Amino acid sequence: MENDQPVEVNVMPKGLIYLPEPEKGAKYLNEWDLESHYYSPDENPDENLNYKFLLPALEKIKGQDYDFVIGFDHSLNRTIIGYPNPEGRFLVFTAHQQAALFAHTFLTEDGYPEFGGEKDKLVIKGIVLSQQIDKIVTKNNGAYKESHSGYEDLRERIMTMEDEYTQFLAFDERNHVIMDLEKEKNVAKQLGLIFSLVKKLKQQEKTLFDFHVDLQIRYKLYGEKTFNITSEGENKKIFDRFRSKPPSDAMHEELVSISDYKKQLFFNKLTGRKSEPELRQLDIVQLEYSSGLKISVELIDGGDKLLLHLSDFTDCYNKESFATSRKNIHDRLLKIVVSLGKMVINVT
Predict the structure, then answer these.
(1) All residues at 6 or more sequence positions from 318 whose CB lies less than 8 Å from its CB, including other chains
(2) What is the pTM (predicted TM-score) of this model?
(3) What's the fold here for domain 221-345?
(4) Which residues of the chain have pLDDT under 50?
């Protein structure tokens, strides 16, 4: 008679934690069977939390079968996650993709919440992030607030939350992730969330990449691009032109709403309703279109820099169409920024 007992499979996640110097964030690592690797802040700049920042950690595990790498910046305020693609090559999630991963896992870690039930978890999203986050929060019975980007703005929104929320998660497009206002506890909570997620995925013989694709299929595939516009002496003119003459007809897009944080005005063009945004005054304007396209224009560093953020979505019905759908949304965003360059950015 054949042995029909289930075969035991090791589903414990194999991960690497990348931290600034041994004394930062280390005391909680023993709670999980994960390896750690430390870097010197002087030798690894963290201005941009991207693949290059994580490269020393990825070199350490090269050729080994790891499920994830999670890195933290010098101040433990920002997070970046590396994952293996189907070919085994490590890539990193963008801040937008990472936000979707955190939001869905945070809201569903105890099982899918009952729709219409009591909301006890609060998600705070930086306003530049795409509407995919809104969909995730709404469909998983979470409470929702928006914030300007940056650790201090996110922290301030957390400090004003109502007592009925027992847990919170805040993030933005700059990789800030906050689950606790005490820095090392914040690291610990993020590690616990990712460790638990990867363990569940391994039980289902899935990876973080599979989970990412599943999210894009369930909540539509969103693409996001950020462009640093360099037009010396013209940044303010470009910014003001987006505010005073938002691109619409020439792009074949119907403009639905304008959020002008400099003027402290929200205007819904469809209803004619005007109101004042909850957030503080800032040199940023957001344009939303009926197609789902969102354009955010931000003037920073006293006008020395102009950031153009685009987000849009497309349908992705199955894993087989993921690569093609991702390329299509990427190409669409590039076409849009070229059109904007002709219509708005070239002010001369």
Answers:
(1) 217
(2) 0.92
(3) TATA-Binding Protein (3.30.310)
(4) 1-2, 5-8, 347-348
